[in-house]
Amino acid sequence: MSPIHVRGKPGDVAERVLLPGDPGRAEWIAKTFLDEPVVYNTHRGLLGYTGRYRGVPISVQTTGMGAPSASIVAEELVQLGARVLLRVGTCGAVDGALAPGDLVIAQGAVPLDGATRQYLGGLPYAPVPDPSLFRALWAKAEERGYPHHVGLVATEDAFYATTPEAARAWSRFGVLAFEMEASALFLLGRMRGVKAGAILTVSNRIGDPELAPPEVLQEGIRRMVEVALLALLEV
Question: Nucleoside phosphorylase domain: from which residue to which, for each copy (predicted)?
Answer without folding.
Answer: 16-218
